[in-house]
Design goal:
Blueprint (H helix, E strand, L loop, with lengths): L1 H13 L3 E5 L5 H7 L8 E6 L3 H6 L4 H7 L4 H15 L3 E7 L15 E8 L4 E8 L6 H21 L1
Parallel strand pairs: 1-2, 1-3
Antiparallel strand pairs: 3-4, 4-5
Amino acid sequence: MEIFTKIVNELIDKNKTIATMESCTGGALASEITNVPGASDILKFSAVTYSNEYKIKMGVSKDIIDKYSVYSRETAIEMAKNIQDFAHSDFGIGITGKINRSDKANDFGDDAKVFICIYEKEGNKLHELELDVIPNIDRKINKEYIVQNVGNFLYDLLTK
C-alpha cells in the first residue's frame, strides 16, 4: 500500500519512531510498514498479541479486559500505550476487535467491530478510530481494509 511509503518517509523526516501491538490484524500493519525500504529506521518493535494472556504479558491490564472486554476501545488504548512504553517509541498503535467471528473465550461485543488507538507520547495524546468490518468478506480483505484505514488515519495525524 502506497500510504506506508509516505508514512515511513514522514516518520524518517520527523525523526520519529513507531511500535505496534496487533491482535485481529495479525501483524498485517507491521508487515505493510516493513515492506517499505527504510522501515528499520522507524519501526522499533511489533507484537502480535492474539490471546488475552499475551496482551496481559505485554502490559494490558487484566482489570481492563475483564471490565470492558478484550474487544474494546479501552483495550486498544492500553495496547497502544504499553507498546509505546515497551519500545520507547514516539508512537504506539494498538488494534483489537473481531472480524466477523464470535469468540467463545471472549463472548462480548460486536462480532464485526475493530478498535484502533494511536498513542502519541509527545503531549500524551490518544487518537482513536473505530471501524465496522465488511460483512461476508474474506478475512484477508478485511485485514487489508483495516490496515489501509489505519494507514490513512496515521498519515493524516502525521501531516496535520
